[in-house]
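User: Structure with zinc ion, tokens only please.
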Amino acid sequence: MIILGVESSCDETAAGIVESDNKGRLILRANAVLSSMDIHTAYGGVVPEIAAREHVRSINPVIDQALKDSGLEWSDIDAIAVTYGAGLGGSLLVGVLTARTLAIIKNKPLYAVNHVEAHVYANFITVDSRKNVDSGSGYVLPVQPPAFPMLALIVSGNHSQLVLFKDHFDYVLLGQTHDDAIGEAFDKVAKMTGLPYPGGPSVAKAATSGDSFAFELPKAKLTNISPALQQLRSSATNPGSGSYDFSFSGPKTAVLRQAQRLCGKDFTFPSKDLPKTLKIADKANIAAVFQRVAIETVVDKTVDAYNEFKPSSVVIGGGVSASSELRKQLAERLPILPHYTDIRLCTDNGAMVAALANFKVAQGQPTVDPYSLDINPNLTM
Ligand code: KG4
Ligand code: ZN
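Assistant:
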């Protein structure tokens, strides 16, 4: 089975090709991505209208590129999969309409994929056999796919959630953010301190010259237990009692107040004036403290969930799973090695969409109608 995956939910226009072989292994045949990130950098965050327009320009070239990189022809493609949510409406429309059109004119079955689930499935790709790509760009992939039960921490610019997978497509959402996603908080702290978008990598870079204990930054304490988690615990012999929800807006505002104090100003000082007023050393300290605390927040919950549910594997997915601080803290605090993939498969890509669709096909899940598939910007897990 060879599947073309199309992704356009935010600012990356992407097409990936993933094959499943007769041993059930997932093989990466192509991962083409065109990002409009550089244009958004000028605005300090993604501008939805610009992202949608750039998808229109990039979608056909990126699909052509994926086919070229894989050395495959249209006749080799068995199915098309596309992200239909969650994401920006205008952006999702471009990918979905393209995939629908291709499914009709190339006569291929069409699968609709949840973007957040797809981030988890990037971890199931274990072989890189791309043909026509530049040398030196081989991906470092997991040796084995993650085993079930699997605890997944999904951390991106739009999502922060902990999910316990009993099997493929059989999962319980343990907790999620009440406000900002962790990646979004990184992006906002970067903007406050004058660091470029996207915030995750630029905060990480600035943090290397800062003191991660330079000042106190409280973690949010949440008590909310979702009905799904309540139900899971009701049948457990030794149920936990804590909440797996997150909040990043409190720490983000605490960073703003600290930055204003460091400038000798009060809370009325506008955040847009902070970058030119803060000293370089203060920016580095803010980056280091925020990165440590934000990452600790998700790691604390992941370790608690590991101890409660004793999964066979722990995986991380989403753009923030590229964070070396996250990978380091998890490796230090979990009794098993966390599962993660090449950075180019952590941020948005089409290969993860194709990877997930391979399991949909294997499990006989229904195709969708290429004449009527709609987007769902608010799709949840
Ligand atoms: O998954 P993704 O590409 O898009 C969404 O679905 O949101 O994630 C983008 C987010 C951004 O907020 C970015 O700041 C963050 O991932 N990110 C990182 C790193 N690379 C990207 N955060 C921390 N460390 C990184 N190396
Ligand atoms: Zn994403």
